[in-house]
Amino acid sequence: MTIFKTACIVFAILPSVAAVAKADDLLIWSPAKLSDRSYKATMGFRLPAEWETSAGADIGLASTKGGAPLPDSEQMMLWGRISKTTVTPAGQSQLGARVSVDTLRGGGALTLSRSRSWILSDSLDMQSSRSISVQYDAVEARQASVTASQALKLIHPWTGTSLSAGTGISNAGGDFSSTVTVSQAILPNLNLDASVNNPFSGGEAGSVNLRYRVQW
User: Fold this and answer.
1) Cβ–Cβ under 8 Å, residues 146 and 171
2) Which of 101, 119, 160, 169 lies at a 20 to 30 A Cα distance from 58?
């Protein structure tokens, strides 16, 4: 059975599986229509424990107006992750690991991450995060590349203002990147962001974005 037929069957049973997902929180089912003729679904399961464990697959497909699958549009990604969250009166921390394998193209990645948030003072909160990722691309026959990143965020919860700075480095080409971002909450679901990439180099670039988030 081709990937196209498999995806068609998956999306055909979407309503019944979605009903089961609502009844059982251990089942992961998140379908999405990306455009008129492209679809994606994340499915899997989770096991609640001190170390929460989850595993599943991401399936994607795009087709032409005639219904034929577009070349190289199929996606079949297997993934798994574990995480542990520790909560204290002063803040919380999280450790996690994620592995993903592209079954169609032979690539894969392993990511280890750590994040922490705490109360810095009566008017300021602080967040920090670190991650390291090892990636392998079988199609390009590249050696495994390693990317490390870290970020620090200062938050004023009473005004919804935050200042964050992040850096990243990859051994693939010795690339180093940095970003500084200022964010301001205007309404509960409306945020204004201004960021500068590589502010300490000759190739800096800035952007201003207005983001509105809707949940249903």
Assistant:
1) yes
2) 169
Q: Could you state, in chain order, the average pLDDT of each consecutive group of 10 residues for the chain (216 residues)?
A: 45 45 70 82 90 93 77 86 92 95 88 95 93 83 82 93 93 80 89 87 79 67
Residue 165 and residue 45: Cα distance in Å, rounded?
34
194: which 2 tokens? Answer: 């201004």
| DSSP character at residue 13 | T
* Rounded Cα distance, 108 and 139, in Å: 11
Q: Which two tokens stand for residue 198?
A: 């590589």
Residues 6+ positions from 139 with CB-CB distance below 8 Å: 105, 106, 107
**Torsion angle defined by CA atoms of residues 101, 102, 108 and 110, in that order, rounded to the nearest 10 degrees:** -40
Q: Is the pTM of the predicted complex or chain greater than 0.85?
A: no
